[in-house]
Please model this.
Amino acid sequence: MRLGFVLSEMFTGLRRNLSMTVSVVLVTMVSLFFFGAGLLVQQQVSILKGDWYDRVQVSVFLCGSESTAENCPGGAVTGAQRDAIRQQLTDSPLVDQVFYESQAEAFANFLDTYDPSFTANVTQDQLPESFRVRLTDPERYEEIRDQVVGVPGVEDVPDDRKILGPLFSALDAATVVALGLAALMLVCTVLLVSTTIRLTAFSRRRETSIMRLVGASRLLIQLPFVLEGVVATLLGAALASGALWSLVEYGLGRLADRPGFTTKLVGTPEVLTQAMPLMFGVGFLLAVFASLVSLRRWLRI
Amino acid sequence: MITFEHVSKAYGEGHRPALAEVTLQIDKGEFVFLVGPSGSGKSTFLRLVLKEERSTGGTVQVAGRDVGRLRSWKVPALRRQIGVVFQDFRLLHDKTVYENVAFALQVLGKPRHVVAQTVPEVLGLVGLEGKEKRRPHELSGGEQQRVAIARAFVNRPALLLADEPTGNLDPTTSVGIMKLLDRINRTGTTIVMATHDDDMVDQMRKRVVELRDGRVVRDEDRGVYGSNR
Model:
């Protein structure tokens, strides 16, 4: 009976301030959406970094017969040069393992990886032989690169970080922007929830004064107001989760399904396990915090 | 039922106190008129009994509780023993007569069958049978005040406070309300009524406590409103 009473009071409040309730729901939705998006971008960065560090292999490409690089004046790498390079790599404390990939193996891999239409005109001679080096510590990528660049017979040691570095900083910037917007919107949410509660408390001051007079407990008087805020923000959190999920599932998902797209992207599991619990948690805490603050000011017993 | 010992109440520094050193005892079952000009401290007295305000000095005891030391979470329990009626009725306009009275029981978590049994009884007592489904704006002032009294009394409080309950009513209607309060008093409920209604006080011949500038200037059994009005 009492629970029924609290719930009916709550729904009365939500209905009476319908426009305020809707604005609380929408503002919460937008703020939690940015918050969740920020979390996911951060998650994507750590996936990419982990992925990249797992795969980190310094590729030391050796000079081929058709090499035009400055470091390959004598054409293809000689056997002695190859052995010297292998020795230098094996001796380095930074190196975990060294694999050799001949031109024949490189060609076979190339045929496996790419579409026949693209590989038709490529011959084995055009692909360089290489050493693939696995590092003991992927972070020290730069050091090993510095050691081998310029050694006779080495054509090039491409720096993957040149490609990934700007990507990482762009994603970091996106995180900052998303979380900054989220913080701003969350402040709006708090203010809006407390304003709504203040208005509700004012429009229901007759009821609450009568409730106080007949001796209703503080909990019974205040609970409908707190629940109103909580219900509205949780509704916002649900909408934000839905929006974020559809963006990830149908936006990123379609991108990830494209042929040749090998980068692992955040997907539904990350939305469910990483973003949503925090979005709901933050929404709930915000509502409780905002209502307690405003109740202390506007609904003294 | 109510004991005030040297009770003072000042609203802020430098203001004249609303109540000054008031000592007063009201026993169980009494009917007391609280009279005096506006601003003499009648409403403050009632608010202190309800713990809507804290006294700035002295002790207030209501139904055996030291109200000044009462923890805030125990205040609702105190108020359940007190019914209150106001000059402006304070009814809920979107609820019917029945719902207005039932509201007081519902917020206390009374089971449905208790509500269904008690509300018609009380509405009968105050003379509103047959008007359960009316809304406050469809009733006369006297009838609205009866609804308010029914709501204050439905929980059978030991004490009923009335703050100028006849202030908005014509003399004939006021007599009806007074008779009703008298009848409630005879059931054993203590009644404290703040009023300006001199005819009523003179007719009823009950105990009269007169306040002036926050002090008790007169306390008479079977008194009248006052000679120096």
Notes: Chain B has two domains: 1-81+157-223, 92-156.
